[in-house]
């Protein structure tokens, strides 16, 4: 016999359980925290890209012999 199809638990996804703070209406504060975290992430990515670009331009500016010796000096 086939399984019962009366139990539809989990069909259609699950609902997000709301915290007490969300139930009491402090969701805007949570959204502000998310925006702040996103801003920090974007700032970090910008700094990393700037560093990578600066390293790339330094490597291109140095002749191949000097770049290899600089890399060997960094490794030790």
Topology:
Elements: H1 20-23, H2 27-61, H3 64-75
Rounded to the nearest angstrom, the distance between the terminal CA atoms is 71 Å
Shape: elongated
Order of helices and strands: HHH
- Protein structure class: mainly alpha
**Which percent range describes the beta-strand content?**
under 5%
> Which bin fits the share of residues in helices?
55-70%
Q: pLDDT average, as an integer? A: 75
Tally of strands: 0
Largest sheet: none
What is the helix tally?
A: 3
Q: Radius of gyration over alpha carbons? A: 27 Å
Note poorly predicted spans: none
Give a summary of the structure in a few sentences.
With 76 residues, the chain is mainly α.
Please provide a written account of the structure.
- With 76 residues, the chain is mainly α.
- The protein has three helices and no strands.
- The longest helix is centred in the middle third of the chain and has 35 residues.
- It is elongated, with a radius of gyration of 27 Å.
- The model has no long low-confidence stretch (mean pLDDT 75).
